[in-house]
Write the structure tokens for this entry.
Amino acid sequence: MHQNLATRPAWMEFDLGALAANYEELMRQVGPGVKIIASLKANAYGHGAVECAKALANRGVFALSTGSFRDAVAIREAGVTAPILMFGGNLPDAAAQYLEYDLIPTVYNMETAQAVSEAATIPAPIYIKVDAGMGRLGIELTDAENFIREVSNFNNIKIEGIYTHLSFKDSKGEEWSARGIAQFNRLNERLRENGLEIPVTQAVASANLMVGHMDGSNAICPGALLYGLSAVNPDLANIEPFRPVLTAIKAQLIHVGTFPNDPALKEGGYHTVRQSSRTGVVPLGLYDGYRKAQDGIQAEVLIKNKRRPVLGVSLEHLTFDLLGDETVKIGDTVTIVGKDRGDKITLDEMAHWQGTGLNDLLMNFNGRLPRRYYHG
């Protein structure tokens, strides 16, 4: 069923021009010869995997990557032919489905390697994931060399790449990540010395790029930076010159009324206000991803270039104070995130109100609201 603006007057806005600019900035920073494997995990960090994939493919990206088979299939069905690396997240039996859609499996156990070998009718490219210290997915560093050598002897398998992931937020994490990447690089050196040349090697991601760390690998796998999101704490590195791709979350006013001065309403998450306060309501609430502010912190929205305090958040509605403004009317645009003339509410500001991180905030909104794309 199609929903138009009248039936669903709330939406998110994404600037694909910013995505392209961020991609070009990454290309400039890493220089020629370094491949970009663009991360589209978690529905492109909530930005829409299909639209972002199409935009990046149009820029000539080396490869895309995701952990979602559903997203990967949707990208293929949208006509994108760029290589798609599947992050680990499947059982070995998924190998045949991956190959059917021309997806590149990640291998870190013999069961998956065997499944790919049996499903493939011609040599199928795979990437091998190495755990260089994250403790999540991958073959452990101490076992990696023997594992890679053994997998290289499987029928109908071609090791196209080897990668690892070591994300961090602060200076201690930065040092830990650098140690892990150094060990990963030594693994690659040993493989080359012993006659096993793997075409694509990758360890650097957004956090490493933000602090200026490159390594001996020939590929990077940026996620957050592509979308103009910081991958590290603000005291460690600045997000500039990368631009946010999510530029606005907006809704239209569906009701103007009064808010009673009833202390009992605070039990439902509402702040008490002056009696007969003028209030506004937009159709965006908990279900759509908006969360209540922490105790003692006041969340706000923008309407007609003025900040208005949020009074309450319910499942499908957001109520805010309009006291002193008699000009606001039904249908007026309310800015939840983004610019309204001279003022702006940022994702970081909203995350602070809610006591959460950017990834958590984006995942709350992921797929809940209609998306509008433009090229700024």
